[in-house]
Design brief:
The complex is a heterodimer of chains A (847) and B (440).
Chain A: H1 2-9, H2 18-27, H3 33-45, H4 49-63, H5 68-84, H6 86-91, H7 94-101, H8 107-123, H9 135-145, H10 150-160, H11 168-178, H12 187-201, H13 209-224, H14 230-246, H15 266-279, H16 285-295, H17 301-317, H18 322-334, H19 338-354, H20 363-368, H21 376-388, H22 396-404, H23 412-428, H24 434-446, H25 451-466, H26 468-475, H27 491-498, H28 504-508, H29 530-540, H30 551-561, H31 572-586, H32 600-613, E1 623-626, E2 634-643, E3 646-655, E4 665-668, E5 676-677, E6 691-699, E7 712-718, E8 723-729, H33 744-753, E9 759-764, H34 771-780, E10 784-791, E11 794-802, E12 808-815, E13 822-828, H35 834-846
Antiparallel strand pairs in A: 1-2, 2-3, 3-6, 4-7, 5-6, 7-8, 9-13, 10-11, 11-12, 12-13
Helix pairs in contact in A: 1-3, 2-3, 3-4, 3-5, 4-5, 5-8, 7-8, 8-10, 9-10, 10-12, 11-12, 12-13, 14-15, 14-27, 15-17, 16-17, 17-18, 17-19, 18-19, 19-21, 21-23, 22-23, 23-24, 23-25, 23-26, 24-25, 25-26, 31-32
Chain B: E1 4-8, E2 14-19, H1 28-37, E3 47-50, E4 53-60, E5 63-69, H2 75-93, H3 98-103, H4 105-115, E6 116-117, E7 120-121, H5 126-132, H6 143-154, E8 170-183, E9 189-203, E10 209-214, H7 217-231, E11 250-253, H8 259-265, E12 268-270, E13 275-284, E14 292-301, E15 305-314, E16 321-330, E17 335-342, E18 346-350, E19 355-364, E20 368-377, E21 391-397, E22 406-412, E23 424-438
Parallel strand pairs in B: 8-23
Antiparallel strand pairs in B: 1-2, 1-5, 3-4, 4-5, 6-7, 8-9, 9-13, 10-12, 10-22, 11-13, 14-15, 15-20, 16-19, 16-21, 17-20, 18-19, 21-23
The chains are: A alpha+beta (847), B alpha+beta (440).
InterPro entries (chain B): Adaptor_comp_med_subunit, AP2_Mu_C_sf, AP2_Mu_N, AP_mu_sigma_su, Clathrin_mu, Clathrin_mu_CS, Longin-like_dom_sf, MHD
GO biological process, one term (chain B): intracellular protein transport
GO molecular function (chain B): lipid binding
Chain lengths: 847, 440
């Protein structure tokens, strides 16, 4: 009893602290383990900094206590202490002690230690886990999993879900050891096991047997969760919703279990309905529709509305059923129940959009219900239907006119629809509706305070007054198709939520950061991707050059998928420009291009032309690639450039030896981007002390082999003296192709599709110039600015580029005027290219 | 993890409040009362987020039990835990009611301290808890006893203590099945499943190891194949060999069952807790023999009259008796009077439930009976149609509708001198109605 009083009074009463501390420290030595444990537990509740210092010693002892009950209590106490003073836990070595407890013989001690460690990891100040899990610890945890209490199993499974196995094999074995948990009576154990399995399934390739067996094994336990208490059912359903979105196959045959029961609580009903729609397919649509119709006559308004909406969604999702859905909806409209009718009209609008010119016969029925509509969404939908099919509704003008009477009382949504509908009507039947359109335009532009409405009114007005034909094209243009699936979660969010199955995040369908304050939110989780894992394994292999299954496999396959277009057949300008460097730089030695040398004048002309027409892309200053002392007198300075869509290697040869050099030849080793020389090295004899310039055009679909760093290029130069080897770095920007501009929309969707794990950030320093000048500079180097935005004084440039091996890279450049530092975020399916792209950016910006 | 736990009565007064973490402020108690208990609308979700604090609640018999947290906790675990607390409290002092909670608040605080540490659920097995959290005065236990308690609380077999002795080794098995049915008015089965559980009462000495066998299809087929190999009989289909099998969709076990063994060998082996516990739960959907069929016939005669005829057929062996049969036929809200004629049992119109309740004490298999009713309605002006809730029924039959059979339960106790034969075993099958509904 002493402890109970103490615990409740200590947090609020700091006055009498000496006595209890002394008593507690003494009790930690008591012969009764229950007393010792209670003392440790109470200690953790005293949240007074000064006292905690006295408690370190007893806690350390208790962590090594002979009695497991004391140890398990002490393990949790470490987490408590971390909450009070994180530095003390780190300094006093409690973390290591806690880690030792992971190999304790008693399963419950292990479970509590895992729980404490997970909490500490999530709360760590640095944001990085303080104690990393490794394969042996995981093994111990898996062993303890079989023996500890249901709650302990939950702790361990949750901790396992944070661990990423090294390779598919390890993932496989973990899966096998976890699957039995699916038969546990405790829903939390089942869901946590589902979480781990869903995460690991990402890691093993999709076609293996494991994935299919797992998918098969996951279904029954998920279904069984639906016979639990309603509250647990609710959590389960929210999670099933995620599972169904991620892997629709798992539950595709289990439609029936999601049928709503008469006395389910409303929150269970709504969730079941949601899942039913997701599972609806041609095979089960008849059953589903029957059920939905039944639900539409229930009592709860929200539920009925959702059911009606679901019927509409079925029509859009399963085409063959559209007919029946529409007739069901019509039946429901006949019931004249106000909210049913309104909801039905909203979904019928969508059906009209999906299947134009198919069900217009029902319009007359809809029009009968015009005056019962009082919700903005339903009214707007009805107005849209009237406008869209104005040519088929004889009294369309009257109908719209009746709406116009109370124009100013309408919701903005309805007003906008009315405006558009009247304009549509006018374009379809110009003869008798002129008055109407003028009326609505004046209403919208003169009497309204809503800027959206006013602007739209003005646009229509001007369109109609200047060019009615163009207006027709604009207003009556074909509408983009509406998507079949609605309410889908964004893929990145879905992946993150899959990692949070069974937790609150999965119940809210929001990332933890949205509802957890401060550091408790933890690190963002994401699903492991196969690519990353493959890469990790490859780095562990002893060979320097990884095998083709790793990243290069990806690069290769992309290459095969669509080889970059060969450089355009050399136009005149190209040839001239190609020869130009030689002319300007070298002078006497034979030019690379035969055409250029004789036509010196025209070459110069070409120079002027080329420069004025397209300012050259950035060419880094030449570097010394082969110093004379290593090249037996041959010194090579070189750089790379890109001209007219072709990368080139530019070199200056200097002969510092005593004898002339002849017979130059060049060879490039296989490299990451498949760069190889086109034609030979056009360098003749170089006399002693003389120099020569050479420009070597490069092509990019040669054999590929991954290099480290990625843009490393190994070169061999041969002459009459010897063969010399050196390596240089290809600046990435010479590999950016001219067709690297993405459409805005494509950019946006691609950006969303690429998982967050594939995002890399980088800070550029010494940035000078405005956003525009930078964008211009970038464009010269084939980095295309898709959009520019100004957010809170920062300029955001959205840019895309494409590498010669068809890797698309999407970038976001954040500039702050006056700040020499800029943030660059990069997203790409193959993030490995990031480093060299950052280097290229640095170089271009500084040029 | 769980930051705090509150118990309220139906008025929203706090009965128990225990805060485990100091990120939960004192106003959290009020926030839940104001936003959930006193909220105008019906509860739309068991999880509520108020000002970045999440509340999980369950409500049982006018008592609200709420867990509070500010972290991203495992939601399934919180609910399972709340349900467990209710379990534990029930086994300590019976029904959950305001009075019982007030009378036992010291005990409840003590329990909450033991089963939740810093918001982490600890051992919550009632059998074990009762060994050291008692309502009597504390005897000073000897050192061995203390060690035994702690090793048991944390031990591998946390659900059984050592040194149990019975003069008579006895065990009882109850196979309890709940049949759930949803039938269309035309008699088409829309969905049907059986949720079954096996409840075991064991009074066994020592640490007995038990092996439980059922007529599960997978096991029986594997066995059939094994036999086939020896006798050269390739006919391994147990259905054809005459023994009925049950196809179990999914099953779950009490924590004492060795799950990994079930996964690999499909055998159910365990060391049982002492006394009563739920050994397994299962679910089947195939070949369910539906004990009763309800055939409704509803006719609306004009605006003020309705005729209802309900035929009830029993569909099981004539030698067996169904019991506690109750059919509930919903009536419209504007019912003014009901005339009833039934061939068997008693029928009554209950205005408070808006339903005709027809009770039959016993009914043998393969029989048929019927009820007809004339319902008089008041004329109303409400346009809203009566939604015709389904007809539900309740019953109890002495067999397992899924076809589930216990094949054996073997007991091995190597240390004590009793064998499997000395154990007295009782098996009982009960089929009850779950949600057994026919739409009309």
């Amino acid at each position: 009893m002493f402890f109970v009083v103490l615990m409740s009074s200590i947090p609020y009463n700091n006055g009498w602290k000496d006595l209890p501390t002394y008593q507690l420290v003494k009790d930690c030595e008591d012969s009764n383990p229950l007393i010792r444990a209670l003392a440790v537990r109470t200690m953790g509740c005293i949240r007074v900094d000064k006292i905690t210092e006295y408690l370190c010693e007893p806690l350390r002892k208790c962590l090594k206590d002979e009695d497991p009950y004391v140890r398990k209590t002490a393990a949790v106490c470490v987490a408590k202490l971390y909450d009070i003073s994180s530095s003390m836990v780190e300094d006093q070595g409690f973390l290591d002690q806690l880690k030792d407890l992971l190999s304790d013989s008693n399963p419950m001690v292990v479970a509590n230690a895992v729980a404490a460690l997970s909490e500490i990891n999530e709360a760590s100040v640095s944001g990085r886990p303080l104690v990393e899990m490794n394969a042996p610890t995981i093994n111990k945890l898996l062993t303890a999993l079989n023996e500890c209490t249901e709650w302990g199993q939950v702790f361990i499974l949750d901790a396992l879900s944070n661990y990423s196995p090294r390779d598919a094999r390890e993932a496989h074995s973990i899966c096998e050891r976890i699957t039995p948990r699916l038969a546990h009576a405790n829903a939390a154990v089942v869901l946590s096991a589902v979480k781990v399995l869903m995460k690991l399934m990402e890691m093993v390739s999709a076609d293996t047997e494991l994935v299919s067996t797992l998918s098969r094994k996951l279904a029954p336990p998920l279904v069984t969760l639906l016979s639990a208490e309603p509250e647990v059912q609710y959590v389960a359903l929210r999670n099933i919703n995620l599972v169904v979105q991620k892997r629709p196959d798992i539950l595709k045959h289990e439609m029936k279990v999601f049928f709503v029961k008469y006395n389910d609580p409303i929150y269970v009903k709504l969730e079941k309905l949601d899942i039913m729609i997701r599972l609806a397919s041609q095979a089960n649509i008849a059953q589903v529709l029957g059920e939905l119709k039944e639900y539409a006559t229930e009592v709860d308004v929200d539920f009925v509305r959702k059911a009606v909406r679901a019927i509409g969604r079925c029509a859009i999702k399963v085409e063959p059923s559209a007919e029946r859905c529409v007739s069901t909806l019509l039946e429901l409209i006949q019931t004249k129940v106000n909210y049913v009718v309104q909801e039905a009209i909203v979904v019928i609008k969508d059906i009209f959009r999906k299947y134009p010119n198919k069900y217009e016969s029902i319009i007359s029925t809809l029009c009968e219900n015009l005056d019962t509509l009082d919700e903005p969404e339903a009214r707007a939908s009805m107005v849209w239907i009237v406008g869209e099919y104005a040519e088929r509704i004889d009294n369309a003008d009257e109908l719209l006119d009746s709406f116009l009477e109370g124009f100013h009382d309408e919701n903005a949504q309805v007003q906008l629809q009315l405006l558009t509908a009247v304009v549509k009507l006018f374009l379809k039947r110009p003869a008798d509706t002129q008055e109407l359109v003028q009326h609505v335009l004046s209403l919208a532009t003169q009497d309204s305070d809503n800027p959206d409405l006013r602007d739209r009114g003005f646009i229509y007005w001007r369109l109609l007054s200047t060019d009615p034909a163009a207006a027709k094209e604009v207003v009556l243009a074909d509408k983009p198709l509406i998507s079949e699936e609605t309410d889908l979660l964004e893929p990145t969010l879905l992946d993150e939520l899959i990692c949070h199955i069974s937790s609150l995040a999965s119940v809210y369908h929001k990332p933890p950061t949205a509802f957890v304050e401060g550091r408790g939110a933890g690190v963002r989780k994401s699903l492991p991707s196969r690519g990353v894992v493959a890469e990790e394994t490859s780095t562990q292999q002893p060979t320097v050059i990884p095998n083709q299954e790793s990243l290069i496999g990806d690069l290769l396959s992309m290459d095969i998928g669509g080889p970059p277009p060969a450089p355009a057949p050399s136009s005149n300008v190209d040839l001239l420009a190609g020869g130009l460097d030689v002319l300007l730089g070298g002078g006497p030695e034979p030019g690379a291009s035969a055409a250029a040398v004789p036509g010196g004048a025209s070459g110069l002309l070409g120079d002027i032309f080329a420069v004025s027409a397209a300012p050259a892309s950035y060419v880094p200053p030449k570097q010394c690639w082969l110093p004379a002392d290593k090249g037996k007198g041959l010194e090579i300075w070189g750089t790379f450039s890109r001209q007219n869509g072709q990368p080139r290697m530019e070199m200056t040869f200097t002969n510092k030896a005593m004898q002339p050099m002849t017979g130059f030849a060049i060879q490039l080793n296989k490299n990451s981007f498949g760069v190889y020389p086109v034609g030979g090295l056009a360098v003749g004899a170089v006399g002693a002390g003389a120099g020569a310039e050479a420009a070597l055009p490069l092509a990019t679909h040669g054999p590929v082999q991954r290099m480290d760093p990625l843009n490393n290029l190994q070169v061999a130069i041969k002459n009459n003296i010897d063969v010399f080897y050196f390596a240089c770095l290809i600046p990435a920007h010479i590999l950016f192709t001219e067709d690297g501009q993405l459409d805005k929309r494509v950019f946006l969707t691609t950006w969303k599709e690429i998982p967050a794990a594939n995002e890399v950030q980088h800070t550029l320093s010494n940035v000078v110039g405005t956003a525009d000048s930078i964008a211009q500079k970038m464009t010269l180097n084939n980095i295309f600015t898709i959009a520019k935005r100004n957010v809170e004084g920062q300029d955001m440039l959205y840019q895309s580029l494409k590498l010669t091996n068809n890797i698309w890279v999407l970038l976001e450049l954040k500039l702050q005027p006056g700040n020499p530092e800029a943030t660059l975020s990069l997203k790409s399916r193959t993030v490995e290219v990031a480093t060299c792209i950052f280097q290229a950016y640095e170089a271009i910006i500084k040029s | 993890m769980i930051g705090g736990l509150f118990v309220y009565n139906h008025k929203g007064e706090v009965l128990i409040s225990r805060v485990y973490r100091d990120d939960i402020g004192r106003n959290a108690v009020d926030a839940f009362r104001v936003n959930v208990i006193h909220a105008r609308q019906q509860v739309r979700s068991p999880v509520t987020n108020i000002a970045r604090t999440s509340f999980f609640h369950i409500k049982r018999a006018n008592i609200w039990l709420a867990a509070v947290t500010k972290q991203n906790v495992n939601a399934a675990m919180v609910f399972e835990f709340l349900l467990k607390i209710i379990d534990v409290m029930q086994s300590y002092f019976g029904k959950i009611s305001e009075e019982n909670i007030k009378n036992n608040f010291v005990l409840i605080y003590e329990l909450l301290d033991e089963i939740l540490d810093f918001g982490y659920p600890q051992n919550s097995d009632t059998g074990v808890l009762k060994t050291f959290i008692t309502q009597q005065g504390i005897k000073s236990a000897s050192k061995e006893e203390q060690a035994q308690i702690t090793s048991q609380v944390t031990g591998q077999i946390g659900w059984r203590r050592e040194g149990i002795k019975y003069r008579r080794n006895e065990l009882f098995l109850d196979v309890l099945e709940y049949v759930n049915l949803l039938m269309s008015p035309q008699g088409q089965v829309l969905s049907a499943h059986v949720a079954g559980k096996v409840v075991m009462k064991s009074y066994l000495s020592g640490m007995p190891e038990c092996k439980f066998g059922i007529n599960d299809k997978i096991v029986m087929e594997a066995k059939g194949k094994g036999n086939g190999g020896i006798s050269g009989n390739t006919d391994s289909d147990p259905a054809r060999s005459g023994k009925p099998v049950v196809v179990i969709d999914d099953c779950q076990f009490h924590q004492c069952v060795k799950l990994s063994k079930f996964e690999t060998e499909h055998s159910i082996s365990f060391i049982p807790p002492d006394g009563e516990f739920e050994l397994m739960r299962y679910r089947t959907t195939k070949d369910i023999s539906l004990p009763f069929r309800v055939i409704p016939l509803v006719r609306e005669v004009g605006r003020t009259k309705m005729e209802v005829k309900v035929v009830l057929k029993s569909n099981f062996k004539p030698s067996l008796l169904g019991q506690k049969i109750e059919v509930k036929i919903p009536t419209p809200l504007n019912t003014s009077g009901v005339q009833l004629i039934c061939l068997k049992g008693k029928a009554k119109y209950k205005a408070s439930e808006n339903a005709i309740v027809w009770k039959i004490k016993r009914m043998a298999g393969m029989k048929e009976t019927q009820l007809s009713a004339e319902i008089e309605l008041l004329e109303t002006d409400t346009k809203k149609k009566w939604t015709r809730p389904p007809i539900s029924m309740g019953f109890e039959v002495p067999f397992a509708p899924s076809g589930f059979k216990v094949r054996y339960l073997k007991v091995f106790e190597p240390k004590l001198n009793y064998s499997d034969h000395d154990v007295i075993k009782w098996v009982r099958y009960i089929g009850r109605s779950g949600l057994y509904e026919t739409r009309c």
